[in-house]
Amino acid sequence: MPPPGDRDYDVVIEPGALSRLGELVVEAAPAHRYAIIADGVVADLYGARARTALEEAGQRVDLFSFEAGEARKTVETWAALTGAMLEAGLGRDSAVVTLGGGVAGDLGGFVAATYMRGIPFVQVPTSLLAMVDASVGGKTGVDTVQGKNLVGAFHHPRRVVIDPELLRTLPDRELRCGLAEAVKHGAIADAAYLDWIEANGAALLACDPEAMAFLVRRSVEIKAEFVARDPLEGGPRKALNFGHTIGHAIEAALEYGVPHGYAVAVGMVAEARAGEEVGITAPGTADRLRDVLDGLGLPTAPPAGLDTDRLAALMARDKKSRAARPNVVYLRCVGVVARSPEGDWAHPFEDAAVGAALAAAGR
Predict the structure, then answer these.
(1) pLDDT cut 90: percent of the chain above it
(2) What is the pTM of this model?
(3) Burial of 267 by CB count in 10 Å (0-12 exposed, 13-18 middle, 19+ buried)?
(4) Terminal-residue alpha carbon distance, the chain
(5) Between the CA atoms of 124, 126, 127 and 132, what dihedral angle is there, to the nearest 10 degrees?
(6) What are phi and psi of 350, to 5 degrees?
(7) Which domains, from first to last, does the chain contain?
């Protein structure tokens, strides 16, 4: 698959790729030593296999783990991992292998971006969400109490290694989170792909190998196209944030007690409904997205008890905000993103619209 950013790297999608990890990593990111970064759950599942694959390729490997969960994607965890690598004596001629979901990729990638002013890394996503979205594009970072992903860097991996067989151990909730991001890709770029997801929902939820392989490849293709056009998110890449302005605010407001994909599912319906309310999005678009998401068992209405004033404040601090005003991506219709009158790929979103959008999402 062609490189998706401003660096020449490829995305390998291959059943059984974990067994060839040593060859694939060393070829893309030769180093004196390797640091595998994974959360504790993934380390228990796949850490030994990844380490063995690298050691069998003649490499010296250290495994560093952290407690699983979005709540651990913090500056404190970044500092602990960095300190552990320094204590272990890894030098600037080392490289990082991030093994896990989006948290491991974001956090481990940020460690790589900042360790001794930057060392190479290879992404090995193990969740569907990371395979179809988080592992492609070079975004790394951590969350703060003020919001999600507010501290970070663009640091592209040398290679992304996707082994669809790893999805066999993925919990059902995490599988659905990845499907939410795939729905987003169809919503912003490919109506036919969205139709395919809806028609193949049962196979996808059953983790059918053929259906899953197609889903991963098509979503990676869509994201790669946006990233290649706009590596630093100054233009068309903003479209990938559809559903995320409200979704990230919901996550932060609930202290990451709701999964990312679930929050984004609600955010997509709310932002589509808001676009309809202001006359930008074609009527029926939100209902179409809601039907697809419902069929995948994803939520489409906001959780009870959300404080809309708190959400508005969190949205204003979102990294996409300008002049403390949140920006959202509106669809023209399914498969087409609406441009603003100024040609931007995102639109200003008034505080007063937050409550109305969430209320409308539940209709």
Answers:
(1) 78
(2) 0.88
(3) buried
(4) 41
(5) 40
(6) -70, 145
(7) 10-169 (3.40.50.1970), 173-361 (1.20.1090.10)
H, E, C per residue of the chain:
CCCCCCCCCEEEECCCHHHHHHHHHHHHCCCCEEEEEEEHHHHHHHHHHHHHHHHHCCCEEEEEEECCCHHHCEHHHHHHHHHHHHHCCCCCCEEEEEEECHHHHHHHHHHHHHHHHCCCEEEEECCHHHHHHHCCCCEEEEEECCEEEEEEEECCCCEEEECHHHHHHCCHHHHHHHHHHHHHHHHHHCHHHHHHHHHCHHHHHCCCHHHHHHHHHHHHHHHHHHHHHCCCCCCHHHHHHCCHHHHHHHHHHCCCCCCHHHHHHHHHHHHHHHHHHCCCCCCCHHHHHHHHHHHCCCCCCCCCCCCHHHHHHHHHCCCCCECCECEECCEEECCEECCCCCCCCCEECCCHHHHHHHHHHCC
134-144, pLDDT tens digit by residue? 888 899 999 99
Report how far Cα 21 is from the mean position of its chain's Cα atoms: 22
Please give the structure tokens belonging to residue 87.
């204590």
Q: What is the pLDDT of residue 323?
A: 54
- Name beta bridge partners: 64: 37
Task: Answer positive or negative: Cα dihedral of 207, 169, 18, 81.
Answer: positive
Q: Which tokens belong to 12?
A: 């390998």
Catalytic residues: 117, 139, 181, 223, 233, 237, 241, 244, 248, 260
54: its two tokens: 């690298």
CA 293 – CA 358 distance, rounded (Å): 16
Pairing of strands 336-337, 327-328: unpaired
* Average pLDDT along the chain: 92
**Other Cβ atoms closer than 10 A to 156:** 25
Residue type at position 184: K
